[in-house]
Amino acid sequence: MTSLGRRPWLSVSRWLLVCYCIYLLLPLYWLASIALQSNADITGEFALLPQNPTLANFAEIWRNPVWFSAFINSLNYVVLNTLISIAVAVPAAYVFSRYRFLGDRQLFFWLLTNRMAPPAVFLLPFFQLYSAVGLFDTPLAVALAHCLFTVPLSVWILEGFMSAVPTELDDMARIDGHSFGFFFMRIFVPVNRGAIGVTLFFCFMFSWVELLLARTLTGSAAKPIVVTMTRTVSASGLDWGVLAAAGVLTVIPGIVVVWFVRKHLVKGFALGRVS
Amino acid sequence: MASIQLDGLSFRYPGAEEYTLAPLSLNVPDGTAFALLGASGAGKTTLLNLLSGLLAPTSGRIFFGDDDVSYVAGRQRNVAQVFQFPVLYESLSVAENLAFPLRARKFDPLWIDERVRHIAADLAITEQLPFVAADLSLFQKQLVAIGRALVRPDVSVVLLDEPLTAVEPRMKWRLRQTLRRVQEELAVTMIYVTHDQTEALTFADQVAVMADGGLLQVGTPEQIYATPSCEFVGYFIGSPGMNFVDIERLESSLEVSVGASRVGFRPEWALLKPQGQGQLAGTVESIQLAGTDSGAATGVVRLDTAAGRVAVRGKLNVAVGDHVGIELRQHLCFSAQGDLVTAEYD
Amino acid sequence: MTKPYNNKAWLGVLPVLLIVAFSGVVPLMTVVNYSVQDILDFNSRFFVGFQWYSETLQDPRFVEAFVRQLGFSASVLIIEIPLGLMLARGMPREGISASLMLVLLAIPLLIPWNVVGTIWQLYARSDIGLLGVTLNALGLGFNYTANPLHAWITLLAMDIWHWTSLVALLAFAGLTSVPAAYYQAAELDGASKWQVFRYVELPRLKGVLVIAVLLRLMDSFMIYTEPFVLTGGGPGNATTFLSQHLATMAVGQFDLGPAAAFSVIYFLFILLFCWVFYSSVVREND
Amino acid sequence: MLQLSQTQLVPDAEAFEHPFRAGTLTVVLGRNRSGKTNLCRHIAGLACSAAGEVSLDGRVMSGLRPQSRSVAVVFQAFVNYPNWTVAENIASPMLAQGVKRKDRDIRTRQLAEVLGLEELMQRLPNELSGGQQQRLAIARAMAQRAQVLVLDEPLVNLDYKLRETLVLELRSLLQQSGTSVIYTSTDPKDAFALGDEVLLLDEHTKLQSGKPLDVYRDPQSYAAADLMSDPGVNPFITKASLVAAARKAAVRPEHVYLASAPPPGEVNEFQMDVWGLETSGDETFIHGSVEDNPWVVRCSGMAHVVPGQRLPILVRNDDIMRFGVV
Predict the structure, then answer these.
(1) Quick check: A224 pLDDT over 90?
(2) Strand D25-29 versus strand D197-202 pairing type
(3) A:23-82 residues touching chain C, CB 8 A cutoff
(4) In the prediction, which pLDDT does A238 show?
(5) Highest mean pLDDT among A223-232, A255-264, B314-323
(6) Domain-embedded: residue A224
(7) Domain for residue C241, yes or no?
(8) B238 lies in a domain?
(9) Cross-strand partners of D315
(10) D276: confidence class by pLDDT, cuts 50, 70, 90
(11) Residue A211, in any domain of the structure
(12) CATH class entry, domain D2-225
């Protein structure tokens, strides 16, 4: 809209935003430049730009089964966690947004406390529990453990979005004669696909970044990327190049996911409440 | 206080072909109560946003008094606006809300308090002054919003965008009367946007009827109702609107102006007569009761005639299917293009 | 239209209850169980009541770690909340620049926490890091692995880099919910920048800011991975926070009782924050 | 015939009975928050605080879910499925009834033509104007071919002129449909324009019912009289002789005449201090006070009256409505 009423006083905050973006991008740039340099160049004499950029580090990761399988393991439990969380949270959020029932407030609060539970507290008990159940060192273990955090968050966000959808829609479907299942799958879920997309982003965000639980619940078979990276630093010589390359590769999936849900991101961050 | 002069003012969104607001010229004398009447999408709110400075005109000029404000920012135009829902500083008290525009313009604090009390008394919201805006009822909040618009002595024009939409039907009448009374007392120029003809004809000295981004007619409520400039205005004002029939379809002759090809008459300008009388013959298609007059049922009779459907208002002493005559006690003449032709009527 | 009361609704909530209880309730019970026993090995345990609790509370290392944690969380809040708010006010609201800015700001939230540590390690090392080398070139003798103050500053800089976007995006969501009419009315009033922020934007940001403050408070209170990767709690234990202290106790020295007691105290503290959050935001909406 | 018995629209409201005869169009008239929406939801079987028995042609429906009641509803807000096209929205009830695709498409096209939506078939509801969205909701309700059709103040969110045209369309549409129609409104004009029958609701309970003209002519209570006039009746004052022993008396705004145009029959004269007036062109409402009672006088055309003026007005004897004659 060609408008005169644009808020002229943006200059200070806009200038600050630009500085912050630079502050944000510098370390990422440095990660990428290290990833493009051979170890010799990195530890050699310091240079702002990579002298002779090489993709050797990335090739090393691609070829080396340890790194490659770690990547797959990570994606494995992240996707599993996201699917479980959404499959479970969508019906629960529907019920929270549509009905009052015995203990609904207490349950909602209890869910919230789990989202806030410090992972460090659960290291040992998780280890024992999942070994007892025979799930240790499997992607399902990490996925389930992460559910402790992603499910409450998903219910919270989805409930916010769903209460913005008028209940007359449900009434309309009942009056038309549709069964609840038909209404839910063919009308209610599609109408909320934006909200589900945003929730998917939040689940991915949490599950992909977490280290503690992922490390505790995996041995060698299901070792995720996050763990492999910490091992490389401490154990073998400090191969910075390969480490940086792995770092770059872990950033990319996040960017892809956020690009797809960017339109609904703002509402998601309002956790569906403010909108 | 200022008169408002628009010449050739228009607005079009960048990239769109047709105008959201086609070029129009208008003069609103200082201190008048002016109504912008039209269905939704007629361009009323776009015109309002051009006046408030939210939108910059695509072409044409806006003059407040004799200075050109076409591209001046809203804050320098000394304009106030009341929106469809109450827009207040929810965390501030009513008194602070009313004083806000005055403090922003650095008026003397003592004078501000006196002015705030005066406006509050005028709008009968004196007891609400200390309360926080958020705690008021919707009706009271809208009164405070109106107060905020009137509190500045130097306000050039007060813009109102369908201010009664969110107010309960029973309270609309009170708010309308308050608005009209205050407008006359302070003699401030007001532009009132609405799609409701009762609000427009009640509130305004001058009414502008708009449709599809164009200005069709500007006139006093009587002119708009009695002599619509074109068929659209004739139909739009009045419920049911004016009937239109082709002249050659009329049974008997009627003094008709030169160049007229159609005749327009309001439902209450016609009279039902026994078959064979009057200028038009019709069969009763439906009857819509509206109440009783001296005991007899009255309402609107809809008839099918050789010249199409017409509606006649009066006593319901007919039944569906009756063949009757329609006598036109009053009528207007329109050209083939639907514009009013100088009418002769007794 | 108030929501109808219907206990059949439990069917929809049951799966959530099962999943979260499986990984939430059982482990918590085991922790509480351990926290009141002295466990030598699997079959010899003695009930010791609150001994571990009192011991932990007096343990100087716990108190130090607790104070460090509070210090860290406080400084995180003091910087990130206002900074995030100001960034949000500068963010573009329409068009492609708005989407690009959203994606850019969301990136740090998507990087695995240990990779954030690694990035900052590569960035701040005085031998190969862009920041480290530049600071030294300016003659500041910057070395976060040796100097506790430098370690703290680097940790803080990293956390700001990592999490301020969350506050900015939350505040931005709150700002975009302000209807345009309020800005227009303020413009016609001739309100100043500060007045617009104070009387139009801030009242609407209350809910969102409470969420931001409590999320950042709790997440910073639980921080483990990034400091572990960057400084390993060093130099010495200058940057050993609660989670790290707990991790070394529980996994390292394997004295289960105190570690469990510590965990319960830690959890109760978080529960307190949570209750404050629940009562101020969620109840306000119901 | 739809029969309501022991119906309480809210828990402590007075119970009432009412038969909606088959094929008739009943306008349920009541102020805001007088229980109209609860009545609609009660008949349709939707969750609400109303209680009581609902039976259709003798079959008790009270326990049944909306799905198994032959009741279609048009809500006040324009409720359509946002992710389905116009055509899919109209076909929705037929889909639920298992009507085969061929018949569904034919009936969908017919209904779209009747309601002027034929060019918009592939559009989504949010691309339509307010009037079109409500037409879509009406088309879907009719596609259901239910025995009872409920419309809860369907036109209240529409523009002034659009409302007028849609009332006409609805009238012809609903009369041909042959189903029992329940149409709620706050405006007595709708009762006259649409209603074969009118049911007055006040304080969540039935006040009176009958033919619109009959209820208009002899209301059984002051509240019933007040409901049938907009803006409400004029309360009569203490002049004992005129209102005999009635506890309450009132006269309708349209039955107060200006001295300049006296009506036939025996009249009584009053003086009105004019506060102001409202006009829509066809008619004018003069607001003022008569012996410090707020009164409104409705006269046709655009009356020229100035606030502060003392206006002589006339009231015919048999236009005065007397209630509670002792």
Answers:
(1) no
(2) parallel
(3) 23-28, 30-31, 34, 42-43, 46, 48
(4) 62
(5) B314-323
(6) yes
(7) yes
(8) no
(9) D256, D268
(10) confident
(11) yes
(12) alpha beta
Q: Is residue A195 domain-resident?
A: yes
ipTM value > 0.90: no
Question: Which pLDDT band holds residue D238 (cuts at 50, 70, 90)?
Answer: low
Containing structural domain, residue C209: 31-285
Find chain D residues with C-beta within 8 A of B286's C-beta: 171
Contacts of A270 in chain C (CB under 8 A): 170, 173-174, 176-177, 208
Instruction: Find the angle CA(D116)-CA(D121)-CA(D126) to the nearest 5 degrees.
Output: 90
Structural domains in chain C (count)? 1
Lowest mean pLDDT among A59-63, B22-26, B34-38, C85-89: A59-63
Q: Residue holding tokens 């525009």? A: B101
- Flag whether C15 is in a domain: no
C80 domain-assigned? yes
Using a CB-CB cut-off of 8 Å, the residues of chain C touching B106 are none
Mean pLDDT of C180-203: 90
3-class secondary structure, A88 = helix
DSSP run (H or E) holding A59: helix A56-63
Lowest mean pLDDT among A78-87, B129-138, C201-210: C201-210
Give tens-digit pLDDT for D31-41.
Answer: 888 999 999 99
pLDDT one-digit tens code per residue, C41-50: 666 777 877 8
Answer yes or no: is pLDDT of A153 > 80.
yes
Whether the predicted pLDDT of D198 surpasses 90: yes
Q: What is the pLDDT of residue A9?
A: 52
Q: What local confidence, expressed as pLDDT, does residue A6 receive?
A: 47
E strands, chain D, in order: 2-8, 16-20, 25-29, 51-56, 59-60, 71-74, 148-152, 180-185, 197-202, 205-210, 234-235, 246-251, 256-258, 267-279, 283-290, 293-300, 310-316, 321-325
B219 in the same domain as B297: no
Nearest CA in chain B to D162: B39
Is pLDDT above 50 for A3?
no
Domain residue limits at A176: 66-269
Same domain, B247 and B142: no
User: What pLDDT, on the 0 to 100 scale, is given for residue B35?
Assistant: 95
- A residues 81..140 contacting C (CB < 8 A): 84, 87-89, 91-92, 94-96, 98-102, 104-105, 107-109, 111-114, 116-126, 128-129
Q: How many CB atoms lie within 10 A of CB C59?
A: 18
Q: How many domains are contained in chain A?
A: 1
- Check which CATH number belongs to the domain holding A244 and give it: 1.10.3720.10
Residue C89 — φ and ψ, nearest 5°? Answer: -70, -25
Q: Name chain C contacts of B101, Cβ cutoff 8 Å.
A: 188-190
pLDDT of residue A236: 46
Please tell me which of the candidates C181, C202, C203 has its beta carbon nearest to residue B87.
C181
Token couple for C94: 């329409």
Cβ–Cβ of D192/B299 closer than 8 Å? yes
Determine, yes or no, domain membership for B46.
Answer: yes
As a whole number, mean pLDDT of residues C7-26 equals 87
Look up the CATH number of the domain holding residue C166.
1.10.3720.10
Tell whether B218 and B263 lie within a shared domain.
no
- β-partners of residue D284 are D279, D299
Average pLDDT of every residue of chain C:
84
Chain length of chain D = 326
Alpha helices in chain D, H assignment, sequence order: 36-44, 86-96, 101-114, 130-143, 160-177, 188-194, 212-217, 222-227, 240-243
Residue D97 contacts A where some CB pair is shorter than 8 Å: yes
Question: Where are chain D's structural domains?
Answer: 2-225, 249-325
Q: Which residues of chain B have pLDDT under 50?
A: 343, 345-346
Q: Is residue B206 part of a domain?
A: yes
Structural domain that includes position B316: 243-341
Asked, for residue B207, whether it belongs to a domain, the answer is yes
Q: Which residues, including other chains, have CB under 8 Å from residue A275's CB and lie 6 or more apart?
A: A164, A267, C173, C177
On whether the D249-325 domain is CATH 2.40.50.140, my answer is yes
Residues B178 and B262 in one domain: no
Residue C67 lies in a domain: yes
Q: Domain with B219 in it: what CATH number?
A: 3.40.50.300
Q: Which pLDDT score is estimated for A4?
A: 43
